[in-house]
Amino acid sequence: MPGLLKRKDAALIFSINSQFDVFSPPRKQSRIIGPLPVRRKDRNIRPSLDMLPDECLYEILRRIPSVRERSISACVSKRWLTILSCTRLTEFFWNTIYEENEVDCDGYLSRGVESKKSADVRLAAIAVGTSSRGGLGKLSIRGNNSIPGVSDHGLTAIARGCPFLKYLSMRSILSITDNGLLEIARECHSLEKLELCQLPCISDKSLSVIAEKCPNLNTLTIESCPNIGDRSLQAVARFCSNLKSITITDCPHVGDRGIISLLVSSTVVLSKLKLQSLNITDYSVAVIGYYGNAITILSLSDLPNVRQRSFWAMAKAKGLLSLSSLTITSCAGMGDLSLEAVGRDIPSLKHLSLGKNSSVSDIGLVAFVKSSSALQSLQLDDCGRISQTGILMALSSSHSKLKSVSLDKCSGIKDTFTEIPYLAPCKSLRCLSIRNCVWIGNTTLNILAKLCPQVHRLDLNGLPKVTDDGLFSFLESCETLSKFTISNCTNLGDELITTLCTVHGKTLKLLNFEGCHKITDTTLTAVAENCPLLNDLDMSKCSITDSGITALSNGVQQNLQVLSLSSCPMISNGSLAALQKLGKTLLGLNLQNCNSISTASIELLSESIWKCDLLY
């Protein structure tokens, strides 16, 4: 045999034993049938689904028939949760046996993710978990600019797992980009309300797609998004035929083109428009007056490029036929002539709020009130040129429809009364609020008491010059008082409150004496004896003791629901029995900063009045 082989094949001959030689042609290495050699550390490893690649695991998990079983499967590991959350509902194999018993995923659940809890894993869990309980309809994400938190991955999980999402609000999230919002646009076609606040990585690209893919969008809020501008607003005007409300704040790239496109659009009919801190000019405000015939609520704040003639033109256009509420803040262009035109040419205006204005004087205010036939509510905040004379004449000149007047930080109103020939009483006024007007004293209040005999709610806050004498005239002239607040009025004492409870005790439902240090147990005794309808009482930072709380617990009030005793250091453990008795009707009790009450007493009290919301 050796002689028959060529030399090159000689290397393929091997010997079985000493008597035989065998020829073997070249071939692959033989497969080992026996058990593989296993190292000691691998002997305990068992076969697992986790050894499968993502593609295989995806095919297995999408065949789970029940949404409840999918929720349970998502708890196995973070990997399973990620795969399930990124799987669209249309990609699952639905079993008709299970479908009959499943809850309809129509999107009625609400979830909120705050601060450090804003993580992609949490959003993925929400996307999977809510699908078995009716579907997610409302999601609010509040991030932290210093912590990355939620990213596009978490928003993608929400988009694919919650296609019936109707309300989405995102605030202060640095890591959300256009890619995440584009996923929402592709999957959540039922979106109705969208809030984008302080999202620096969101631009016109994604918002334009939202406008095109979400035809049901009716409310849009954009705040402090520097990359959103006119182009996306033009897309909103083109595609969002159901849009009713839009709020745009502090977006430097939003100008006249974007705002005007919303107003002149044939598809969008706005009923609520709020613009703040924008670089718009007179043209936008004038167009509002011409094309805003469906707007009922209009708010314009901090518009430095808008001049007085534009506000005048807005009113003179006579297009704001449905406007009922107007708020203008930090707009130097709103002056006397503009305000008078607003009152004369907007016939349906019921509420006016004017804030941080140094252009409107007494002349403009009185002319506005005289010409406005439907005005019911007037709010003035930090209007330095409005004086005592202007307020009194405005109240006297109002038509018999003005129901509420609020004055806050109006430093021009001082106790220097000049004789006015005749002041007609404003008998329609029901609510009067004066807050932080530090120069108002007893003289002004005495005149207001005669002008407003039908006031039911009186709210005085931060008036250091007012004493008991300034309010006695109110107690005498007002026929019915139901809500009485004199917080942080440090010169008011027990004598006034005793008279108040004696004269109006049978109609009083709310009393607030927060920060009035001269009020003592005498007031609590008067309240306990004369106020049967009282349901809200605030005695925070007052000089009351355990005796006053005991008197209150033995009082005539049958339905006291809210009691605040915050920062009352003289209330101690001796009030425990009285507080337990009051707790039978209380829904809320505030004992914060009452340091004389021990922790043990607080725990005992919380057990005995477990139905009451206790703050301590």
Description of the structure:
With 616 residues, this protein is of the alpha/beta class. It is 33% helix and 17% strand. The strands form two sheets. It has a 20-stranded parallel beta sheet, covered by helices on one side. Helix 13 (336-345) links the parallel strand 11 and strand 12. The radius of gyration is 36 Å and the shape is flat. The termini are far apart. Mean pLDDT is 86; it is low at 1-24, 27-40 and 95-104.
Which properties best describe this structure?
616 residues; two-stranded antiparallel ribbon; flat; alpha/beta; single chain; 20-stranded parallel beta sheet; 33% helix; disordered N terminus
Rounded to an integer in angstroms, the radius of gyration calculated over CA atoms is 36 Å
* Low-confidence segments: 1-24, 27-40, 95-104
Shape: flat
Helical fraction equals 25-40%
Number of strands: 22
- Major sheet: size, sense and barrel closure? 20 strands, parallel
Tally of individual helices: 22
Q: What distance separates the N and C termini?
A: 105 Å
Determine the strand fraction and express it as a percent band.
15-25%
Mean pLDDT: 86
Class computed from helices, strands and strand pairing: alpha/beta
